[in-house]
Amino acid sequence: MNDFLLKSYAYPLPQDLVADRPLAERDQSRLLVYDASLGQSTHTFFHKLSQHLPPQCLLVFNNTKVFPCRLQGKKRSGGKAELFVLSLRPNEEGLYECLIGSNARKDPGDQFIFGTNSGTNSGTRSELLVTIVKRSENETFLVNFDGPDITALLQREGQVPIPPYIRRGVSDGRDREDYQTVYARNLGATAAPTAGLHFTGPGMQALLEHGHEQAFVTLHVGPGTFRPVSAENILEHKMHSENFFIEQQSWRKIVQARATGRPIVAVGTTSLRALESAHGIKDFQADQVYPTKIFLYPGRPIHSIDGLITNFHLPESTLLMLVSALVGREKILALYNQAIEQRYRFFSYGDAMFITGIQHAK
Question: Domain containing 42: what range?
Answer without folding.
Answer: 2-66+173-356
